[in-house]
Design goal:
With 233 residues, the chain is mainly alpha-helical. It has helices spanning 2-9, 12-40, 49-68, 70-77, 84-104, 108-114, 126-135, 137-162, 166-184, 188-223. The chain has one domain (2-211).
Length: 233
Amino acid sequence: MGNLVQWLFNLPGLRLITKPLTRMLLRLIAIPIFRFLLKYLLRVDVISQELEKDLSQWFRASVLLLFATHNMEEILFQTKWHEQELDVVLFALRLFLAIGCIEGMPDQELFRFIHPGPPKLKSTRFFMACREIRQTWRAWLWGVASVHLSRSSPVFAIVTVFKLGAAGWVCYGLAVTQYLIIGLATSRDKAIDVVTSFDAEVAARRAELMSELQAPAVDDTSSTPQESPSPVN
């Protein structure tokens, strides 16, 4: 469905409208706001091409998700089209569009790879585990938050297709906000560092396993008694 979103925006007639409109809205609204946030909150002076691309993808998917909501259907069509067959067709189309918007949001798989969740506990005892959590509470808090972001964002996006009224708008706001946080919290440079450290850990673990497997073979060879040579007649 992510390809469906890209196909919709790449239609010849629709692209002439959506592409300049998206760029204009990004330059007038989204990018200045995020430059302000990055400069004064995150203290980043220059916006990168990667971030601008993520913002563009997020904005496009957010606009399409808005048209997939039940509230927007009521605003556009009101009570004119309330035949049962047509309601089912519109609901199915809105559901497909919402799924496409979810898959079109930026850096979701990369976010789950970089932020897999809270760190694993090294101790098995309850009090030692509580002490370990207390010492690494920031990592645990962000781990739980990252799991919540990656799992609840598509749920909120799908709920907007069903819910009408304030609940639908709240779910829409939560969905697009959480997807924006996912896009801003994901860095490809950090992903490269994670892959490098993961490869180093795998290589170290492989060497450890090879040494453990070779040790019994050496012991068996040394413990096997050598046969004495038979006398020559």
